[in-house]
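Predicting holo structure, iron/sulfur cluster bound.
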Amino acid sequence: MRLGLKGFAGGGTFAHGVHPPGRKHYSSDAQIEVVPAPETLLLPLQQNIGAPSKPIVKARQDVLYGDVVAKSGGFVSVPLHSPVSGKVKKSAVTTLPTGLHIEAIVIKAEENQTAGNDFYADLTGADWPKNGIGEYDPNKIAEAINNAGIVGLGGATFPTHVKFMPNDKKPVHTLLVNGCECEPYLTSDYRLMLEAPAAIITGALLAGHALGARDIVINVEDNKMDAVDALRQAAQDTIIRIAVLKTKYPQGSEKHLILALTKHEVPLGGLPSDVGMAVSNVGTIAAVAMALIKDKPLTHRVVSVTGGGVARPANLLAPIGISCGELIEFCGGLNENASRMIAGGPMMGFPFIDLETPVTKGTSGLTILTEEDVQKAEETSCVHCGRCVDVCPMRLVPTKIALAGRHKDLELARRYNIMACFECGCCAYICPAGIPLVQLIRAGKVLIAAMNKP
Amino acid sequence: MTKKEKDKLTAFEKATCKINVASSPHLADSAMTTRSMMIDVLISLLPVILVSVYVFHWYAVKQLLICIASCLAAEALFTRMRNKPFSLLDYSAVITGVIIALSIPGTAPWFVSVIASFVGIGIGKSVFGGIGMNIFNPAMVGRAFVMIAFAGYMGASGYQNAGSLVDAITQATPMDLFKQSGVVPSLSVLFWGVTNGSLGETSAIACIIGGVYLCIRRTASWEIPLGVILTVAVLGGIQNIVSPDSGWTVLHHLFGGALLFGAFFIATDPVTSPLTPKGKFIFGAGVGAIIMLLRLFSGYPEGVMFAVLLMNALTPLINRWNVPKPLGEY
Ligand code: SF4
Ligand code: SF4
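Done. Tokens:
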């Protein structure tokens, strides 16, 4: 196994975690296709962690591709742009797979949109600069990132400009670009690394420059060696290094990425900047490059539509705001045995039933599982085997936290650090008793949140 | 939806009819279920069962059959009393039966086995709410009860009337012989197990084979047997240094009595042992220390059962004292 980890203290992996079946084969060979713009798009106002965006368009107003339709709602917030040219319609309320009810701007698109094809051509084109990045004013880079509406595309949707703002109090010396994509099934980051490595390199140089980082490392798991090769080639003559990490879930969690590479532990409740690092997903980094070099805001993203439940698994460049149903239809529709539709991957993704659900900036994929995939062992009592303890990457005692959630025992929940759980699902995946640990832990967290409200 | 309505739907709509939701994660490790763990335990007990049948013939077969049948009957009875569905596929009762059978003398009369099984399942498990809820190892609860109630059948004399069997078996257990008359058995006898004792405890090699299998499969946590064996080895070693000519060496301590059987098959019961690796090691070390305390300082030769029960009682405390620090907390 080739571990490209010279000069890094970590061994390329971390303690605990699980090895769920990868199942990347469904869509790993499918080249990114551009989805034609749909008739109507639904842009939910909350597509980032932090304050929702504020609409600045009215019904019946005409908008052009790339126009701002909602401005940033505060410091930790971003604006929204129209992925098409068309007419604004009456706004609607939509429900996201996370259960959030949120107002959405509705846009009726004109016919014959070419924005998607242009976006793809720019993204995968060859004219990405590697030199002259130092000429950009670091503050201007962060500002441009904000103006382009960029959030973390790995699913966390944290506004990227907040991360990439030069910070004197907590200087960042290393930028880690996250290409691990450890969720089973998903291949959108993998395809992006194969098809647009040059854009990723330019974006990483820009982001690294904005941060004043000395070191830039792109991290890829060792089940994606061709992506490693593509990136290595594109990174020639730059300071960027490519690190090959062991394939393991949840390697893509930023704390575990840092742990695997450098052995540093991000303090509990802290941020990567506490150990002098910033972590950003490859898709986000490519969006940074698109914003600064091609002047294109975040209006499209790569979405994997995959799994045994969809007729033709694919990787799609989709306009944000298109419905999940339209993406599935573009992939030939659901198979007879489709049993669950998930926004995201099977370990942390959210199930949805409404085909009208719009694709947002955080939608990394749609995983359609079959009846066979979702068959679960019957739930029995906890046999205290301790397997959940053995796999928890946060070193928690999941069965106790779940017990606290089940019995609404706040004292127990706090003693066992319920808030440190990031719901990765390793514990529930491994539990021989089929206990829905994550669900119970979530219930406990909701309770604590309710108690903490003034 | 009627059939007519169903026919009208497009294939796409038909497919979405079956869509359901549930909390993440949406994948589960199907190779690992409570049932498969139980089956693993049964597989791992096979070498011990085979040796006991080889050494004790039909005494072993009879004891196993009685205990398994009574444990299943007890499980059925008590789950019905609690209005819970009973399924024979709950191998945990079978395992309790096998462990009880293997931990008592082959010559113990049938009613002793039946009572041990009913007490084990009833008081050891059901009153706490069934599988996963009990604090004490059910098999050891059952055995402790008959140990006290039928001391005659279970104590030293319980091992001495196996009349028709090979010579070695008709005498007292190696532990008792040593305690009473200072006879030191050869290590090879203890290792292979051609001697007297409770059905499952005689053969060290059978316990090691089954136990290592359990640990490799990660059905048992290796930290527990390691804790037991290390502590016994260290304390036994100290004893050897203090009184060098007793003849009973560290290896005698390890291979003799129910030590290995207890370390691999009894102390490792997940339900009644701690959750974290560190807690498990402490638990094992505690079992080992109590066993040595009883062996060295009491007139009572075999303390595995008491050691496990005592440490079971401490398990909640060990769990409480061993809340691991989460990643990033110093
Ligand atoms: S893995 Fe499941 S059965 Fe085992 S201790 Fe954790 S919750 Fe209990
Ligand atoms: S307790 Fe939370 S962090 Fe730990 S394995 Fe379970 S879901 Fe992951």
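The mean pLDDT of chain A is 93.
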